[in-house]
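New to this. Explain these tokens.
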Amino acid sequence: MKIILVWASLLIVTIAAQAVLLPLIFTQGAKPDIILIIVVACGLLAGRERAIGVGFLAGLLQDFASGNIFGLNTLSKMAIGYVAGLAERKVFKESVVLPVLAIILATFFNGIIMQALLFLLGYKVEVVSMLKEQMLVSLGYNILFCIPVHRLIYRITFGDKSQF
């Protein structure tokens, strides 16, 4: 029960910061997706079951906070949590390169899922302009934030027993 409260608190604080503070700091439209980084780190460190749950809750909170089409973030974060969780037993958890590579793939995967869902719902999707204008800038921001967030999730998952 305690771990559920820790994850819920982390996600609520992150959603609040991402919805209120980040638009003030990053004014060009593209900003880091800290929720995506948390879901990927959770998958890599805690496995797919926990990552799917965290992805569901994170996506749900992000859908509530964003005001966009309800369910887009929920579906994409759950899928990304599942895929990241598949690698949990096959990776060296203390690696610094792993979260960077994983967040690069997850950022593109998230963008593709979101654009595909919008296309399936009948919205006009411009993939090339979205790639140039937002996804590449967001990718750079996500890479900047992925190591500290990965370390935080490592400490939440495994405690303060390690030197990571």
Q: What stands out?
A: The first helix runs from residue 2 to 25. Residues 19 and 146 are 18 Å apart (CA to CA).
